[in-house]
């Protein structure tokens, strides 16, 4: 059965703007080399990532990352989500591409009848859209599948049609005309409407939520039926807007090293939304309370802060060095060292001229202290971190604390399930009250240990601005 189609092509050209306003958040699957976010439903984001083992789908609920691999597949890509239903594409060991539907329990293959390849790209309720191609010279066709009937969707007169997203009865995608020019489209079941970003060389629509459409015109865009707005992740070399749910937009961007990262963008400024997730909830109140504590000198009192403007003379082993970071290393795995300290000029780092050496050995430690915390009933240690390392099965990285310099307790250990690839400074904080409070000889140390000759080279630790804070008794 084919749908009865009324052909009515409308060229849409309205006002356009350029916006970086709103809140941008990077989404990187822990330890992944590449991450792309493709769609969002509520607070659930789906997409794919690549690590040393291959290409995998993921589901991220704002807190937990979950890998989703079609059973037995060599490649899994998640394209869209609607409630608890997820669609995408997988490849088997023979290289064939198949669509799928996953309901949280059961994986169901979706193959357009007679097609050579099928990709499921969008879902809304029980309606699934995507693309397929058969033996007609590699021509790409769109499709709509309602759980029972497959319907081909080809833009009238187009040489290729890609159907990417659906919301209710509204479907979006892209097509190439007879001259090879690329256009976006909106299809409501009856009428095909061409979508061309004003002045763009080509346009393709990727996602839709009610009447708001996102896609690509060279950069990302948001179109609300009247106004076109460019979406450009700050500092990125390219931005792709892939999915939308209300004021929440997800996609991917290329950094200056042409590495892909996912992003979450809240396109509205919501009063009280402190973490940029497009809502006001308990997490925002927790941030507000934390900021109040940090800024209340009568409660949270600095114990000691070392900014590393000069060499404090801490004990070093292995390749630990004090000096100015040079942005070296990271040529084959992870990211390079920073090209500047968090503050001032200097850091402590592992081999400031490149990656850590791969000879099995260690642990190699940087030890700071002693610090006098005798008058404190609680103690927290914080520092600026820029760390790139293999998983703990191959290279183990630790933060430890001691109140006598002999007996040490682990404060933090890198995971065995994911590499760490920092590409910017981040301040981390750990509560060491049980170890340090009430003691006058407190030590902190950072270490790395090469456990396997199969470890990969990374740029390793970089540390700056170490601070111990606590409550006075």
Structural notes for this entry:
- The chain is mainly beta.
- The protein folds into 2 domains: 11-284, TolB, C-terminal domain (Neuraminidase, 6 Propeller); 296-472, Jelly Rolls.
- The chain is 4% helix and 50% strand.
- It is built from 2 helices and 39 strands.
- The strands form 9 sheets. Strands 27, 29, 30, 32, 37 and 39 form a 6-stranded antiparallel sheet that branches. A 5-stranded mixed sheet has the order 1-19-18-17-16, with no helix packed on it. It has a 5-stranded mixed sheet with strand order 2-23-22-21-20, with no helix packed on it.
- A hairpin with a 2-residue loop joins strand 20 and strand 21 (212-216).
- The radius of gyration is 26 Å and the shape is elongated.
- Mean pLDDT is 87; it is low at 1-20, 270-276, 279-289 and 296-302.
SSE blueprint and pairings:
Layout: E1 11-12, E2 15-19, E3 23-27, E4 34-41, E5 44-51, E6 54-60, E7 65-68, E8 75-82, E9 85-91, E10 97-102, E11 107-110, E12 117-124, E13 127-133, E14 140-145, E15 150-153, E16 160-167, E17 170-176, E18 182-187, E19 192-195, E20 204-209, E21 212-216, E22 220-223, E23 227-231, E24 238-245, E25 248-254, E26 260-266, H1 282-295, E27 301-306, E28 315-316, E29 320-323, E30 347-350, E31 361-371, E32 376-385, E33 388-389, E34 395-402, E35 409-413, E36 420-421, E37 426-431, H2 433-436, E38 442-450, E39 462-472
Parallel strand pairs: 1-19, 2-23
Antiparallel strand pairs: 3-26, 4-5, 5-6, 6-7, 8-9, 9-10, 10-11, 12-13, 13-14, 14-15, 16-17, 17-18, 18-19, 20-21, 21-22, 22-23, 24-25, 25-26, 27-39, 28-31, 29-30, 30-39, 31-38, 32-37, 32-39, 33-36, 34-35, 34-38
